[in-house]
Amino acid sequence: MKNENLYNYILGIADNSLILGQRLGELTGHGPNLETDIACTNISLDLFGQVRSYFQYASKIAGDGRSEDDIAMLRKERDYKNVLLVEQPNTNFAYTIARQFLFDAYHLVFLRELQKSSDLTLAAIANKCIKEVSYHERFSSDWVRRLGDGTEESKSKMQEAIADLWVYTDELFHQTEADKAMVAEGIGIDVIKLKEEYYNYVAGVLEESTLEVPDIKYFQKGGKQGIHTEHLGYILVELQYMQRAYPNMEW
Amino acid sequence: MQQWPMQKRNKQEKKNKQFKKIKTMSTKNWPLWEIFVRSKNGLEHRHFGSLHATDADMALENARDVYTRRNEGVSIWVVESKHITASNPENSGELFEPAQDKVYRHPTFYDVPDEVKHM
């Protein structure tokens, strides 16, 4: 492939939205109440919309006849490059919200920068997505505040979820070889530069929510290299089932 | 004194233990909000439905998700349902019937120009 770095870079972005979208989709009909159920599945559909733009572009870059669906549905586990954070399960609503907030805060600054990419397609996708993601972040940070500064029980659950998922945040700011190559070409975003802003912002929201910023110095990593937690396999089984059982099926 | 149907029902329900249970549960539930959406600039807000939320901000967010997710609106109003005073169905005779047989009360004797929309 001529543009392998660009292809891998696009997948790195798209897989985050794809896997998080699938996780949120699991809540369809299972949300804590009708209103939050619909909100979570709305966010899921926003993410799938973004994913389509990325994979259509990736399909063009790959130029080997694979469609957006093939790229989304027919890779093996090790070929998915999403961060470990987004594949963590919906343990309870606090976990769903914590995962969403920790990712949205990153997603928002990332897309803000991606709008400046010298790759016009990526810049245009970022420009389109950022409005949706601003809403996602408003929704998730709002719930972090409500649960954190809520009852004793909601506070302890929210604190537990933030503490448990905190170990996956550092990976957001790791760079793969493809990332580095893309940064050098002015296409990719130097995520390391966003790290301080991210942690400051997250700490601010946690403080408003009367939650503690976890004092954790060890972090999990590997998703960007395709080395995932045990959860991803199960997600892919559901995600890929239709394409595997009925190859080339369409809506 | 005339008893409204609502009061009668409440009395009966108070006797009913089952209802007491439901009532304690429902006080734990979030309050109900009525949602009004303006679908286009220049049109009025219309009642779209109702939903549950703990406060006005959440009601707005929820309304955005429940009622405008397919691009239905440009503006949302929310009002807690308890603030709405409804007319009593028992009074509908005296309230509405007098208007029915007076054809001269209806502005049907004018030609409305085509340019006037939403009449």
What does this molecule look like?
Chain A has helices at 4-25, 34-62, 68-73, 93-114, 120-148, 152-165, 177-184, 195-208, 231-245. The mean pLDDT of chain A is 95. Chain A is globular and about 55 Å long. Chain A has 251 residues and is mainly alpha-helical. In chain A, helix 1 (4-25) runs antiparallel to helix 2 and helix 2 packs antiparallel against helix 5 (120-148). Chain A is built from nine helices and no strands. Helix content of chain A is 63%, strand content 0%. Chain B is an alpha+beta fold and 119 residues long. In chain B, 11% of the residues are buried. The radius of gyration of chain B is 20 Å and the shape is flat. The chains are: A mainly alpha (251), B alpha+beta (119). The interface between A and B is medium-sized, with 12 and 13 residues.
Write out key terms for the chains shown.
heterodimer, A: mainly alpha, 9 helices, B: alpha+beta, Ubiquitin-like (UB roll), 34% helix, flat, disordered N terminus
Summarize this entry quickly.
The complex is a heterodimer of chains A (251) and B (119). Chain A is mainly α and 251 residues long. Chain A is built from 9 helices and no strands.
* CATH topology (level 3) name of the domain at 7-87 in chain B: Ubiquitin-like (UB roll)
CATH class of the domain at 7-87 in chain B: Alpha Beta
Number of domains of chain A: 1
Number of helices of chain A: 9
**What separation lies between the terminal Cα atoms of chain A?**
30 Å
Q: What level of helicity do the residues of chain B show?
A: 25-40%
Helix content of chain A: 55-70%
> How would you spell out the order of helices and strands of chain A?
HHHHHHHHH
Give the distance, in angstroms, between the N- and C-terminal Cα atoms of chain B: 43 Å
